[in-house]
Description:
Elements: E1 4-6, E2 55-57, H1 74-83, E3 92-96, E4 107-111, E5 118-120, E6 141-145, E7 154-158, E8 171-179, E9 186-193, E10 203-210, E11 219-225, E12 231-238, E13 247-256, E14 263-265, H2 270-276, E15 281-284, E16 288-289, E17 295-303, E18 306-314, E19 330-337, E20 347-353, E21 394-401, E22 406-412
Antiparallel strand pairs: 1-2, 3-13, 4-7, 5-6, 6-13, 7-12, 8-11, 8-13, 9-10, 9-12, 14-22, 15-17, 16-17, 17-18, 18-21, 19-20, 19-22
Cofactor: Zn(2+)
EC number: 3.4.24.-
Organism: Lates calcarifer (Barramundi)
Amino acid sequence: MHFVYYxxxxxxxxxKEDFEKLTPRTSTTFNAPYDxxxxxxxxxxxxxxxxxxxxxxxxxxxxxxxxxxxxxxPIDVYKLNCLYNCSTSVSFLEYCSFSSLNIxxxxxxxxxxxxxxxxxxxxxxxxxxxxxxxxxxxGYFMHAGTASGxxxxxxxxxxxxxxxxxxxxxxxxxxYYYHSGSPSDQLNIWIREFQNGRNSTGxxxxxxxxxxxxxxxxxxxxxxxxASKPFQVAFEVRKGDENSTGGFSIDDINLSESECPHNVWExxxxxxxxxxxxxxxxxxxxxxxxxxxxxxxxxxFLRETFFGVYFRLMSGNNDSALQxxxxxxxxxxxxxxxxxxxxxxxxxxINLITDPSSSESIQDISPWSIVTDVDLSIQPLTVxxxxxxPGNMFSVFPQLYLTTPIKWEEELD
Length: 413
């Protein structure tokens, strides 16, 4: 079966060997499907002698996506793991999309009159689709309703027991939740640590809580963990004191032995915004803070088929207590696609360092050059068409072409 067509007439001289066919005796695909997004795939104009296309994809939607050089695709990773017989991950612990009836070995129970967590594809009051597939195909999520029962009733969902393998004792829990209950309902995130293999009760530690107004949409959430002994993660939904017609749902749980990103700016429907907004209009992030207290903002300039990403410091609550200028600070931007399993996410990363010895550095940022006149009453996802590009806004990704839906993670150390 052909997946691409080669145009021999436009090949440059001497490039024929780059398009030679290989037999199963000399090459293997490890039974993987054809990968248009492989980092090893040639682009549509590679080895062209007249700027014409040398490769035409059989599926037109991949014509402008072949030849990407951001990162290995999930299928690239699968093939490398097969080639070198890698069966375990250095830092990854668990992923669950609840597609299987065994719900990844998790256990559910209820306290009071609560009915516990249920595996569902649709819930009364929402959500009406899981997060993994988002209506593309039927999927499942876990739901704990708060429409019935008494105040304080709770439903518990606990993962299987896991053991930390790294010396740093740092974990990151990432998942999506859907809140359709009352503002006083709670989703509490716990870890239960065990002293040894014989200990069955463990010690509970509250690590995070979600409450407040319902969202009626899938929302990304991250919780830093610090387990140093064998542990479980527990999700508790506790009914509040108000009437509810829904509850809490969770999906696409990822757990890894790594630090959580400091800030995440998730942009929904980004492809639609990019292709319909006026050329060179922009999106502005909310005010974000680094772990040291510096305030900053990210701007995305929209250019229909590609976009630019910029960064600038802003005035913040901690300015009087911070070091100015701020040399030897590192800003890390990571662009991620929206694959729900973090092991299969493709990414693009760039670092900016305020190096005083570099003429191209941002070491001249001082309290007099930070932005103080930004109208933060503007909603973060409002498209702005008249924003100017100040001298102290620094290019991060000057030109990125859209391949898959993305979200942004920003870290400032």
